[in-house]
């Protein structure tokens, strides 16, 4: 069965009529929307090699020696699409840095890399939201595949955030009474039932119903149900489902 995320965001409700999801082709993305992979690795040779590898597939990256280096040099205007973190770093460890960015509200996919495989650390990292855990030395294609998954997940997150913002902006146009009518319509209740529940006339319900459809730019009750689900679940719940679905199929988790 399709996940909630795929059902809800298979259509994006942006300004005007429904539009198809944005093309993923980098040529159609604005420069400030191009994926940026942030690598924090204390080994300079590995750091440079990973940056060169990403550059070979036209992916932008920024490299840092440690968390402190990131704090001092990173331009906060640039929101990373993916973090690649070594577990063992000078100062703040990769795991501790990851916990910090999660607490700060950044919902950015994280890939951990390490030369020391440890099942407990792997499981901890995955349960806290990492999408992959690579043990050095790993194959170039293995790394590129992990980054591709992370960038794809982040692109979905950003599209979902944009769609959710558009939905909430439209929802705020509704009057108090229309917000009372909307969930009842979405629940499949007839105008007569809604009128009885709210103590208003059936004609008034019809007027509110039409106004809701116009303000939310939807044509069918099915579309209204979809928007209602987005509002009630919110972006966090939707994207958490997507991340959890990925995590539960990771070998480190399945091995438990």
Gist of the model:
By secondary structure, this protein is α/β, with parallel strands linked by helices.
Structure description:
- α7 (176-186) packs across α9, α7 packs across α10 (221-247) and α8 packs across α9.
- The protein has eleven helices and five strands; from the N terminus they run αβαβαβαβαβαααααα.
- The protein is elongated.
- With 256 residues, the protein is an alpha/beta fold.
- The protein has helices spanning 4-8, 44-56, 67-73, 94-103, 119-127, 140-171, 176-186, 191-198, 202-215, 221-247, 251-254, and strands at 36-40, 60-64, 82-86, 110-114, 132-135.
- It has a five-stranded parallel beta sheet, with helices on both faces.
- 55% of the residues lie in helices and 9% in strands.
- It has a domain at 22-157: Response regulator (Rossmann fold), CATH 3.40.50.2300.
List the helices and strands and how they pair.
Elements: H1 4-8, E1 36-40, H2 44-56, E2 60-64, H3 67-73, E3 82-86, H4 94-103, E4 110-114, H5 119-127, E5 132-135, H6 140-171, H7 176-186, H8 191-198, H9 202-215, H10 221-247, H11 251-254
Parallel strand pairs: 1-2, 1-3, 3-4, 4-5
Helix pairs in contact: 6-10, 7-9, 7-10, 8-9
* Average pLDDT over all residues: 79
Main sheet makeup: 5 strands, parallel
Query: What is the number of helical segments per DSSP (H or I, 4+ residues)?
Result: 11
Number of strands: 5
Low-confidence stretches: 1-32, 241-256
Q: Secondary-structure element order, as H and E?
A: HEHEHEHEHEHHHHHH
Quote the distance from N terminus to C terminus. Answer: 25 Å
CATH architectural grouping of the domain at 22-157: 3-Layer(aba) Sandwich
Assign the CATH topology of the domain at 22-157. Answer: Rossmann fold
Share of β-strand residues? 5-15%
Q: Give the structural class.
A: alpha/beta
Helicity, in percent? 40-55%
- Give the CATH class of the domain at 22-157: Alpha Beta
Q: What order do the strands of the largest sheet run in, or round the barrel if closed? A: 2-1-3-4-5
| Shape verdict | elongated
In CATH, what is the homologous superfamily of the domain at 22-157?
Response regulator
Gyration radius over CA: 23 Å
